[in-house]
Amino acid sequence: MAAMVAWTLARYFLPAAVATFAPYTAMVALQATVYRSLRDCAQYALAMALGATLAAALAAGAGIHGWTFGLLTLAALWLGHVLRLGQQGNQVAIVGFFAFSSGQGRIDYIGHLAASVAIGAVCGLAAHLVLAPARHARHRQTAAADLYAEMSKRVGGLADTFEATIPDADRVRQWRRDWHRLARDCQTLQRNIDTEEENSLLNPRRSFEGAARALPRTRASITIAQRSLDHLRSITRTLDYAIDSQEIENLPPSFRTGFCSVLRTSASAMQEIGQTPRTDDSHLARLIEDAASKLAQVQTHSQTHPESRPASPTLQGTLVTDAARLLAELRTGQQDLNHT
To answer: Counting CB atoms within 10 angstroms of each CB, which of 111, 123, 204, 231 has the fewest?
Structure first.
């Protein structure tokens, strides 16, 4: 619609030779976000001014010749690259071609060209401001909460598997695949948050109160999830190996029970981080410290109270190390959330 209005106005007020620039500029002004629309429109207007000025200068100073056209091309491409005009960099050369070939470098043609671009920009930006993209900050928060809910659920399932007399190897392998899928989901959410932060710039639509701080906190929580998933993958990979090699049977019952308690407390901490309302920092700190205390007890007990089953120090050490790294990541994440 904006392009049609721009073309109609340009055809009515300006020569037909420049009318096409109006709908094209209107399309340039209709990007995914208001901020991007204004940025691209400004870049295109600058590219148009440079291309037209360069064409007029060469036509007036050296005339319309093949070598001047070649010089125009080289100069326009160089300017488009050096000035970092983004996707509009090539427009310096394209507008220059029109102004040089069709307009013969005449000032009146360039004036009409500028007017056509102005009409298109006004139509495109007006349409974008009226029909501005919706704000999705709440959706991003909800998506992050859903991600953490999935992580917490699977960590709880992982704890159940440790306690089971006969662990389910198929479930463990499914979790390994799930961790990779959730890692991809984290990357997608990070991209969506980037887009939403840009969408919030200059957007006339109102969002919920506190949305400006909600997005950085959501980004921080997704970063915590990405790093935590690395350690969860390692724990699950170790468990998968222990089941295949039957070494899990050598884990003392007290170690398995204590380690399961660490995992469940960590899952509760993850739920606290991922919830939509603001994280209760004191409650999160207590959960992390509780999990760390339980892990220290597990490690101490396994070293000072040998049990009847054969020892598996390497397996125990690997699991304790991975769990300690997971808790360290959650503790660092808690500090990051405090600064957002």
So the answer is: 204
Nearest to residue 30, comparing CAs of 98, 107, 150, 127? 127
Residue in 157, 142, 163, 195 with CA at minimum distance from that of residue 35: 195
pLDDT tens-place string over residues 147-175: 999 999 999 988 888 887 777 888 888 98
For the record, the structure tokens of 171 come out as: 């479930």
CA distances to 119, 172, 180 from 236, rounded to whole Å, are 60, 7, 12
Judging by beta carbons within 10 Å of its beta carbon (0-12, 13-18, 19+), is residue 101 exposed, middle or buried?
A: middle
Tokens, residue 131: 């029909």
d(Cα 13, Cα 17) in Å, to the nearest integer? 12
Ramachandran assignment for 210, one of left (phi > 0), alpha (psi -120 to 50 degrees), beta (any other): left
The token pair that represents 235 in the structure block: 């724990």
Q: Is 219 exposed, middle or buried (0-12, 13-18, 19+ CB in 10 A)?
A: buried
